[in-house]
Write a structure and sequence with these properties.
The protein is mainly alpha-helical and 98 residues long. The protein contains three helices and no strands.
């Protein structure tokens, strides 16, 4: 039983690290989109394609996360917040692209 608890704790730490890294990636992309929105020539084809690709990849990662039974309510809320942020970033990106 002790070994199972240690394994769950290890998974939880790894899961939290993964979520934190996803959050940092989303923040970087958000910053990039915000900076581009402030520019005169908003969206070059290369930038738009790269940004859309990155958004798609982050969305796949975030929306494919399953919530293990041992996940805390706080950790579960972080996943929900990441999903909301991805959705908001898509909207922000679409406004910059047009």
């Amino acid at each position: 039983m002790q070994q199972q608890k240690q394994m769950e704790d290890s998974f939880l730490r790894a899961h939290r690290n993964f979520i934190d890294n996803l959050n940092e990636s989303i923040e970087l992309l958000d910053k990039d989109i915000t900076e581009t929105a402030d520019m005169k020539d908003r969206c070059t084809d290369e930038w738009c394609n790269a940004t859309e690709h990155n958004l798609d990849e982050l969305a796949k990662l975030v929306f494919s996360i399953s919530e293990p039974r041992w996940l805390t309510q706080e950790d579960s809320q972080k996943i929900k917040d990441l999903r909301r942020r991805i959705h908001d970033l898509y909207s922000k990106y679409k406004n910059v692209r047009t």
